Amino acid sequence: MIATARLRRTAVQWTTLLPVLGIIALAFTWGTYPPGWVVAVCAVILAGAVLSAVHHAEVIAHKVGEPFGSLVLAVAVTIIEVALIVTLMADGGDKSAGLARDTVFAAVMITTNGILGLCLLVGALRHRTAVFNQSGTGAAFGTVATLATLSMVLPTFTTTTPGPSFSGSQLVFAAVASAVLYLIFVMTQTVRHRDYFLPVRRDGGAPSQDSHADPPTRQAALFSLVMLALALVSVVGLAKVISPTIEKGVASAGLPNAVVGVVIALLVLLPETIAAVRAAGRDQVQTSVNLALGSAMASIGLTIPAVAVASIWMTGPLNLGLGPTHMVLLALTVIVGTLTIIPGRSTPLQGAVHLAILAAYLELSVTP
């Protein structure tokens, strides 16, 4: 009876109402080109749905513990992100040939430099140094670097097909390799070496979960799981609704079309960013790292197979190869990220360096 009463009280909170409101707004605006004031309302609802998603993700994480909580949020966001990318590619024709590449690379740069750098900076400023398990973090970062290179660097140098694209067999290889590596990593993270991805204690003791509060009931966790799904659907769906306005704004400002992918990635990754920064503030930097690198890995490991399958019925080109500027930024990210991970602890300087790389990426996206 007590659990039922708590669940009823939860059902009328803003964290429940906003995802439902987002779904209603999505139902009325999907497939339309709404006027400016409707876009503004959708943007406000989207922001509220982001905060709601963070709340419900933290409830689930508290119930299932790490690294499962981070994995749930990363995979949920990425699955819906993939659906958004495929939908936009199907609607965009030739002009969306590089949308998957631009969005995935933006997600990689935002997660490995933006989210990671911000969390290291927050964790180090609040607790003098940010500590994490270099074994699990190194494995995750190495997988991200490999997936990014196989999927977005190699297409620029292959000669079977013209342009920065794979041939059919090469695309199948990249899709299978991405999916297999991602699945192996998930098994490593959740089963075989789960201890490598648990929050680290400064005194060297056993990792601790949020012991200051009782975990939610099973009913509450399942309710939050449903609300998380609704919130993420509304976030990504409303991002699709306002994307024509974004595209028009980008075009009218004379900016490159790749900026659209950056904006989409920024919107979609907002829930993970907020959740990761809050975890860093609680001195659980490993949780932040799990979110950041898990999101980067899922973005590649799930998007590349999805667009490979979608390319069967899509007639337009699929450009996955990065240009020289982006390859330099990716190489710099790999080098700096490796040096950041090796010690297993970080000062504010490392966080600032990663944020500087993200700032360079954003600047060069606007003015290539």
TrEMBL record:
Keywords, comma-separated and alphabetical: Membrane, Transmembrane, Transmembrane helix
Protein name per its UniProtKB record: Ionic transporter y4hA
GO MF annotation, one: potassium:proton antiporter activity
Transmembrane spans: 12-31, 37-56, 68-89, 104-125, 137-157, 169-188, 220-242, 254-277, 289-313, 325-342
Location of the protein in the cell: Membrane
Keyword Calcium: no
Occurrences of domain Sodium/calcium exchanger membrane region (ranges): 37-190, 224-365
Pfam families on file: Na_Ca_ex
Organism: Mangrovactinospora gilvigrisea
Lineage: Bacteria, Bacillati, Actinomycetota, Actinomycetes, Kitasatosporales
Membrane topology (UniProt): Multi-pass membrane protein
GO cellular component, one term: plasma membrane
